[in-house]
Amino acid sequence: MVKITDVARHAGVSPSTVSYALSGKRPITEDTRRRIEESIRELGYRPHAGARALASSRSNVIALVIPLRTGVHVPVVMQFAASVVTAARRYDHDVLLLTQEEGDEGLRRVADTSLADALIVMDVQLHDTRLPLLRTLDRPSVLIGFPADPSGLTCIDLDFRAAGGACVDHLAEKGHRTIALIGSPPAVYARETGFAQRVAQGFTAAADGHGLSSSVHPCDPTPAAAKELAGRLLRTHPDLTGLVIHNEPLVRPLTEAFQAMGLRIPQDLALTAICPDETAEQAPVPVTSVAVPAEEVGAKSVELLMRKLEHVPVPQSTLIPPLLTQRASS
Amino acid sequence: MVKITDVARHAGVSPSTVSYALSGKRPITEDTRRRIEESIRELGYRPHAGARALASSRSNVIALVIPLRTGVHVPVVMQFAASVVTAARRYDHDVLLLTQEEGDEGLRRVADTSLADALIVMDVQLHDTRLPLLRTLDRPSVLIGFPADPSGLTCIDLDFRAAGGACVDHLAEKGHRTIALIGSPPAVYARETGFAQRVAQGFTAAADGHGLSSSVHPCDPTPAAAKELAGRLLRTHPDLTGLVIHNEPLVRPLTEAFQAMGLRIPQDLALTAICPDETAEQAPVPVTSVAVPAEEVGAKSVELLMRKLEHVPVPQSTLIPPLLTQRASS
DNA sequence: TTGAAAGCGCTAACAC
DNA sequence: GTGTTAGCGCTTTCAA
C-alpha cells in the first residue's frame, strides 16, 4: 500500500506538505504542488480513510436513514437516496445507509463510533421517538419532514400547505366553484407525518380565499373505499366539479370509479393530486399534480448538513415551494 | 470522548484485554469480562470506527452499488438494498451506498481508501465495463446478475432459466398446449443483463420437454406495442391459450388489451409472468408469477461476501430457484 | 513556504 | 489469562 510518506519521499517533501497540498489548508508553492501531484499520480496514492478519520476526527461520511414501512412510496425514497448520494459526492462525502428498523441504536452507533459525521433522517413523524436523541447527539442532522415541535432541529420538506393551496388555485382558475379534498386515511391525520393536516389546511384556506365551497374526506387506501367514496361524493355533493387527491394509492381507483359512473374527466370532473409524477402519469387519465421534489429535497438536505458541519448557521425550517404540473385531468 | 484506555483503567485491566474482550479473539476470565462489560456500559464506551479500521485494516463496511437506470424496477432495488443492510448488520457491518453513475472510479475509491472491505454490485450487464476492475481489485465482491464470462467472480441471481421453465410447467400442468413468451424489447436480447435470453431458453426447453407448441415474441415496453402484439398473437396463433410475460411494464397493458378483445382471463387465456409481486398483484386480473426474491438474494450476497472476507471458498455461481405464486390469471 | 514530530484510538504481536 | 508496546497512516500543531 502506498502511503503519504512514500509520496513525500518521491516528491522530495515532507509528509505534512503532501497532506496540506491535498487539503489546501495552507499555501503551497506552485512547483511543489505540481511535483506532489505527479508523485501521487505516479504512485497511485489514495489516503487511507480510517487514518484520516482518526487524525482529523472527520470521516467524511454522512448517514442516511431510510424508511421501510408500507405507505411510503418506494420510488420516491430511492430517488431521494440517490440524490443524497450524488449531492454528498459533490462535497467529497460518502453515504452510509441505515434502515428505520435500527431505530435510535443505529443513529447512536454511527454517531458515537464516529463512523458518520452527520445524519439525514427521512420520514420524520409528528412525534418521532428519535427526536430527543437527535437533539442531544453531538452530530449535526437534517430531518426530512416536520415534527410537531421542530425546535432545536433542522427540517426540510415540500411545503404541503402550499401544495394543497396550489391545487385549489389551479381549480379555481379553471372556474370550479365546488371542490373536495380526498385525503389520507383517518388514522394518518391523528398521528404520523403531519403533512396530511398541512395539505388540508392549505386546501381549506385557499378554497375560502377563492370563495369556493369545499369539503374534506379522509379515505382508506383501498379500491373498495375509493369506489364507495366516489359514489357518496356524487350523491352528497352534486355540484362537485373539482377534486384534490392526496392519497397516492387512490389516484387510479378513484379515476376508474368516477369514469365507471359515467363522469368524463376533465369535462365533468377535474382531478388534481399530490402524488409522485410516476403515479400521475400512469393514471387512466394523466393527472395534474404536485410531486414531492425528491431530488431537490435530497440535494438541499446535504447542503444544509454541510453548512452545519462548517458551523455556518442554517434556517430551522426549509419549505420547498410546490410545482404544479398540468396534465389531461384538468 | 471515552476511549479504550478509560475503560481499561476503570475495569482495572489493560487496554488490550478490553480489546480482546470486545473481539473475542482470545479467552478472557469470566470475571474480567464482566468487569469490562460493566465499565463499558457505565462509561458509555464506543470504539472509534476510524481507529479500529486503521489498526485492524478492516472497516467493517461493505459498499453497495445500486443502479439508477430506467428499466430497473425501483421497488425491487430498494427491497434488495434493505435486505443487504439488514443482513450486513447481522455480521456487524455497515453499508455504504454508491450509485452506478460513479462507475469504476467509485469502486476504486472506496476500495483503495479502505473505506469498504468488500463490494456488492447490482445490475451486472453481460459485458459490464466494471468486470476487469472487479477482477483485479484486492477486495472481495459479489455480483448480482451474471456477466457473459463470470470466471474469477462470484455471482448470484434468480435462476431465470428455471423461472421460464416454471411458468411453462405450470401452464402445461393446467393443460395448455400452445403457449407464447412475451419477452423484453429486442434490444435487451442483444446486450444488457442476459436474463432475457435465459428466460427464453428455459421457456423453450420446458415447452419442448412437455411437447407444447411455443413461440417467443420480444416486445417494446409500451401500451401501444402491447396492443399491437396482442392482436397479432390472436391472429397468427389462434390455438394460443397460455402466456408467459417477461416484461414488467407490459403486464397491465397486455391484460387490458386481451380483455378488450373479448378474451376472458383465465378461461380463454391463462397468464403467467416473471415480474415483481407488486406488479402481479395490482394487475387487472392478479397474475400468477415468479418474482426475483430480492430479500433472499440480498441476504445471500452478504453471506457470500462474509465468507470471502474470511477466506472461506464460495461457489462461483449461486442460482436461486424460482418460486411460482399462483393467482387468478391461471 | 516548509519540516519535524506528536498524537488520533485502537489492535495485535510479543512477553510473561 | 493478562499486560506492554509498537505501530496502523494520517493531520496538525509548533518551529523554523
Automatic annotation (TrEMBL), chains A, B:
Record's keyword annotation contains DNA-binding: yes
Keyword Transcription set for record: yes
InterPro entries, per database record: HTH_LacI, LacI/GalR-like_sensor, Lambda_DNA-bd_dom_sf, Peripla_BP_I
PROSITE patterns tied to this protein: HTH_LACI_1, HTH_LACI_2
UniProt keywords, alphabetically: DNA-binding, Transcription, Transcription regulation
Domain HTH lacI-type: 2-56
SMART domains, A to Z: HTH_LACI
Molecular function GO terms recorded: DNA-binding transcription factor activity; transcription cis-regulatory region binding
Name of the protein in question: LacI family DNA-binding transcriptional regulator
Organism: Streptomyces beijiangensis
